[in-house]
Amino acid sequence: VQLQASGGGLVQAGGSLRLSCSYSGKTFRFNNMAWYRQAPGKERELVARIVRNEPTNYADFVKGRFTISRDNAKNTMYLQMNSLKPEDTAVYYCATVPYWGKGTQVTVSS
Fold first, then answer.
1. What digits encode the pLDDT tens for the residues 55-107?
2. Are the CB atoms for 106 and 88 separated by under 8 Å?
3. Residue 29 phi, psi (nearest 5)
4. Which helix or strand (DSSP H or E) is residue 108 part of?
5. Distance (Å, rounded) from C-alpha 110 to C-alpha 103?
């Protein structure tokens, strides 16, 4: 199983980014996938989860701003992030537990 997140960067508050997570391996392992994030000095936390093609969980702090989706034909999961806030600054990881990809840094300036 391999996962690779990309799409992070530096953006001003109120801006948008779209993260991508490409994955490969046994397809049944990818039914339940999620985005997590970890800010400096904080524990890793769940951002959003998608089961098969249905978003099932959003953390309260991203509801209405972030959208999780996937394109099975491209073996890619996405996280569309709008109305970004400085507190969204973190390393974002895609995962199908217990497998984790390398994170991508998102920095939101005020």
1. 889 999 999 999 999 998 999 999 999 999 999 999 999 999 899 999 999 99
2. yes
3. -75, -15
4. strand 104-109
5. 22
CA atoms within 13 A on the CB side of 97: 7
3-class DSSP string for 42-105 = CCCEEEEEEECCEEEEECHHHCCCEEEEEEHHHCEEEEEECCCCHHHCEEEEEEECCEECECEE
Closest alpha carbon to 91 in 38, 20, 41: 38
User: Cα–Cα distance between 78 and 31 in angstroms, integer?
Assistant: 14
CA distance 76 to 89: 23
Residue 95 token pair: 């995962």
